[in-house]
Specification:
The chain is an alpha/beta fold and 256 residues long. The chain has one domain: NAD(P)-binding Rossmann-like Domain (Rossmann fold), CATH 3.40.50.720. It has a seven-stranded parallel sheet with strand order 3-2-1-4-5-6-7, with helices on both faces. Strand 4, helix 3 and strand 5 form a beta-alpha-beta unit. The longest helix is centred in the middle third of the chain and has 30 residues.
């Protein structure tokens, strides 16, 4: 599962959060050189930098930093994301645009900025360079009170497939896949649960949590490490024949 990770140069955004932090740790254990970014430099024991993924200039500066140090990028994990909970009637245009800016605009900005470095890797790396984009089960099916989030994650899913097809046609040897977690124990899910209660969708947090539990046939939420394992696999050459695919890691959520 980790073949080709030793010595690979891999960027993880949103690395201060639950899934990002677990992914950085798993990649480092497998011997990767990891660049970890978040709004504030994450404390991950690797090269950690501040980055707002909605800022094109920040992406250009980050690409220059990686180019100067390694001259290539083997893996790009677009993990940073936010999740809004609001009824459609109550969603402001500013909130909608913020949801799309962080979750969707970042996909285009990251691919554009990192493409030259990914192409350099693709020219030499067995299994090709790898882009891994965090979508969600909410990018496959909808959810009440999460129209903006589900719209953004559906866009991530089809951006990933389109990029996979485009880079394959251009013979860049860059694979692009999306990951679709179910409910995972992170700060994001804590905030979603609190928001369900705040908008009146559940009487209290225990009831809201039980409702989410019930959507997972395995009877529990996932742990960040269980998503990190899938991300490491997609970054490795063990997944060399996967591109344009959806890796669903959801305790059976979407199997119904
Ligand atoms: N936790 C879940 O249940 C779940 C389920 C499906 C998909 N996901 C997706 O997985 C990814 C990681 O989520 P998580 O659960 O670890 O959430 P998290 O809130 O723990 O971490 C997300 C990180 O993204 C960072 N971030 C937010 N806006 C940013 C910006 N503009 N620039 C840079 N960084 C920014 C945050 O600071 C945070 O550290 C997200 O894309 C999320 O949508 C999570």
């Amino acid at each position: 599962m980790t073949e080709g990770i030793e010595g690979a140069v891999i960027l993880v955004t949103g690395a201060g959060g639950g899934i990002g932090r677990a992914t950085v740790a798993a990649l480092m254990r497998a011997g990767a050189h990891v660049i970890a970014t978040d709004l504030a430099p994450p404390d991950t024991g690797t090269l950690s930098l501040a980055q707002d993924v909605t800022d094109p200039d920040g992406w250009a500066a980050l690409a220059a930093t990686i180019d100067a140090r390694w001259g290539r990028l083997d893996g790009l994990v677009n993990n940073a994301g936010i999740a809004m909970v609001a009824a459609i009637a109550d969603t402001s245009l500013a909130q909608w645009r913020q949801q799309m800016a962080v979750n969707v605009d970042s996909m285009l900005l990251s691919c554009q900025a990192m493409l030259p470095l990914l192409r350099t890797s693709g020219a030499h790396r067995p299994g090709g360079a790898s882009v891994v984009n965090l979508s969600s089960v909410g990018g496959i099916g909808g959810a009440p009170l999460m129209a903006a989030y589900c719209t953004s994650k559906g866009a991530v899913r089809l951006f990933s497939k389109s990029a996979a097809l485009e880079f394959a046609a251009l013979k860049y040897n860059i694979r692009v896949n999306s990951v679709h977690p179910g409910g995972i124990e992170t700060g994001m899910m804590d905030r979603i649960i609190a928001a369900y209660v705040a908008v009146g969708a559940a009487p209290d947090e225990a009831t809201a949590r039980a409702g989410v539990d019930a959507q997972h046939p395995l009877g529990r939420w996932g742990r960040p490490e269980e998503i990190a394992g899938g991300i490491v696999y997609l970054c490795s050459s063990a997944s060399s024949f996967m591109t344009g695919a959806e890796l669903v890691i959801d305790g059976g959520f979407t199997a119904h």
